[in-house]
Amino acid sequence: MDCWTSHLSMDDEFEKLVIRMNPPRVTVDNASSRKATLIKVDSANKRGTLLELVQVLTDLNLIIRRAYISSDGEWFMDVFHVTDRNGNKLFDDDLADRIQQSLGPRARSFRSLRRSVGVQAAMEHTTIELTGRDRPGLLSEVFAVLADLKCNVVAAEVWTHNSRMASVVYITDEAIGMPIDDPDRLAKIKQLLLYVLKGDRDKRGANTAVSVGSTHKDRRLHQMMYADRDYDMDDTDCVSTSDRRKLLVTVENCVDKGYTVVNLMSPDRPKLLFDAVCTLTDMQYVVYHATIIAEGPEAYQEYFIRHMDGCPISSEAERQRVIHCLEAAIKRRTSEGIRLELCGEDRIGLLSDVTRIFRENGLSVTRAEVTTRGSQAVNAFYVTDASGNPVKSETIEAVRNEIGLTVLHVKDEAYSKSPPQESGRFSLGNIFRSRSEKFLYNLGLIKSYS
C-alpha cells in the first residue's frame, strides 16, 4: 500500500512539473465567427484537463455552442465557440487570463476528491452532504432539524432523480455566524439527519459519513448520486416513450481505431456538456476526441473514449452501464415542476418555514438552489404535487399568499398567474402542523411543532 501511495504521489508531482513547464495557452478570438467568441486552449495533457476547462467555462456562465476537442497524445488542443447567456459574443479583456489561471497546477489531485458524503468544516461554513431516498416533505424535515440545532443555512443545492436525493448544504453557527467544528456537535447533526434520511422506506440506506477534501459542488452532486446508484431503475420506475425520443445515448466500438464512440442527443440546456464530461471522467474514462454542436433546440455530442489503460469498452454490460449513467447525469439536472423563486430579506429559519409551508400545501420539491447575497435570500425551488404531477394554480396562489406575494414569484411560462393581490406578510403557517412534523417532535428531533 505504501509503495502504491508513493507511486501516485510521484505521478502527481510529475504532472505538476509538466504543467509548470508548459502552462496552458489561452487565446480569445472574436474575428473568426459572426455569432460566437472562439476560445482556444493549448496545454500539456493530463487526466481531468477537459473537465477542468469545461467547469471553468460553465462557472463563468458561458454557453458553449460548439466545441472541437483533441487530446490524443501528450498535448491537449480545444476550440470552444461560446456566447453569454443572451447569445452575445464576449468582449471581456481579462477572460483569457482568468481561464488560464484556473487551469494552472492544482494543490490537490482528483484522487483526494473521491470520498464519502458527510460533514466538513471549511473557512467560512460547514458543508453537509446528504444522500437518501426521496419522499414528499424530506427537505422540510432536514431544514427543520438544522433550524432546531441552531444551524443557519447560507446556501444549498438539492437534486432528486429516480427516487433518490442528494444535497450539499452549507451551514454556520446561528449565534456567531462561523463554521461549526465541534466534533460532538457535528456528530449530533449527522446522527439526527441520518435518522430523518432513513425514515422507514430507504432500502439502500442513507449516508452522512465524514467527508475529507472538497470539490466543485455540481461535480460532487454527480459523484454522490452516482455512488448512490441512481442510474439503477427501480421496478416501479418507467420511462415514457416521449422521454426516450428526447434523450438518446449510443455506445459503439470503433474497432479500426481502438476507441469506443459515445453519441448523445438531447434537448439543449445550460451545463449539459459539463454533466456529460463529468460523468465520463468520474467513471474513469479518458476523452481523446470530441465534437459538440448545440446551436439549436437540440444538442449533439460525440466522444471518442478509452479506459485509463488505453482499452475500449469490452462488454455489453459495461456498454449498457455507460448509457444508463449518462442518461441519469442528464436527467438529474432536468427541472421537473413549476419554478418558484423566493427573493427577500434573509433570516434564521427562513428555509425551515418556507419548506414547511410547501409541505403543508402538498408540494414536493424536486430541485432546489439556495443562495445568500449579502442580507438577501435568493432561492429557487422546482415543485410538483406529492405524486409528481403539475401543481394546481390555486395551490400555488395559496402558498404565495402565505409566504408573501412580493417574496415568492412564479417563473414558469406555462403557468397562468392570478390577478395581482395585496402583498401578504410572511406567515408562520397554520396552527396545526403536518403529521411528519409531529413525527419529528415525537422522536425528539425538533423541540416543538406548535
TrEMBL record:
GO MF, one example: amino acid binding
UniProt superkingdom: Eukaryota
A Pfam family reported for this protein in Swiss-Prot or TrEMBL: ACT
Alphabetical list of InterPro entries matching this protein: ACR1-12, ACT-like_dom_sf, ACT_dom
Assigned keywords, A-Z: Repeat
Domain ACT: 38-118, 127-204, 339-415
Biological function: Binds amino acids.
Protein name in UniProt: ACT domain-containing protein ACR
Native source species: Quercus lobata
Gene expressing this chain: LOC115982128
